[in-house]
Amino acid sequence: MDDLNPEAATQEDLEVALGYRFNSTEQLTAALRHSSFVNELPQTDISSNERLEFLGDAVLNLAISHLLMKRYPDLTEGELSRNRAQLVNETELAGIAREIGLGPHLLLGKGEALTDGREKNSVLADATEAVIAAIYIDGGFDAAFGFVEKQFNERLRSANRTRYETDYKSMLQERVQSTHHEVPQYEMVDESGPDHDKTFRVRMTVAGITADGNGKSKKMAEQEAARAGLDRLDRSA
């Protein structure tokens, strides 16, 4: 695909993978437009997908909150928050992007494309949220909700309290100590939200890999980063 030619993307195939046909294909094109692509076309007035990403994040959180409350009526508010944080994170969203084959359709600048931008979790996750927003704008909340429910169906099915009792940090440490003789390092890289509802992002580094994790506490974020690190080790094995 030519990254400087939006028409090179086969949007019809992508719509089939999404399970949604757009009334305005420009909405989908806008969701696929990375900032690096826009930066290489300074003479145009097109915008990147960053604003759509912002909106998609809100739509996604609302949809997941509704689905969790419906499926798990016995969970407390804290447990619902933890489940949502574990479902709505960069690793999971990038996984969904890969499942629907979003990467090849992204409009990237040449530099981003040459540095494997189509495989970066951050790029894929942001694009997934932008696509959710595009569906919301094009077809309304019901259409966006249907997409989220379909894509998260299996993940929601396995979402329960047992999952979050798993000590991924210990699992990761035991694994890398035996295979690489290293200890994972955790670094707080970001925190957002009001004081009563903060979200923390932690970066784990070990054995030449890095993985980020988000959570409503630093411990939860570290556990998520460790879980993402285990996934990366499995893929590289």
Description:
With 237 residues, the chain is mainly alpha-helical. It has helices at 11-18, 25-31, 35-39, 50-71, 77-87, 90-99, 110-114, 121-139, 141-151, 153-157, 161-165, 168-179, 218-236, and strands spanning 185-192, 199-206, 209-215. A three-stranded antiparallel sheet has the order 1-2-3. Mean pLDDT is 87; it is low at 1-9.
Describe the structure concisely for a colleague.
The protein is mostly helical. It is 59% helix and 10% strand.
Mean pLDDT: 87
Work out the radius of gyration.
Answer: 18 Å
- SS content category: mainly alpha
Count of individual beta strands? 3
Tell me the β content: 5-15%
**What is the element string, with H for helices and E for strands?**
HHHHHHHHHHHHEEEH
Q: Kindly, what is the distance between the CA atoms of the first and last residues, rounded to a whole number of angstroms?
A: 30 Å
Strand order of the largest sheet: 1-2-3
Largest sheet: 3 strands, antiparallel
Helix content: 55-70%
The dominant shape is: globular
Q: Count the helices. How many?
A: 13
Low-confidence spans: 1-9
What labels would you give this structure?
single chain; 237 residues; mainly alpha; 3-stranded antiparallel beta sheet; globular; disordered N terminus
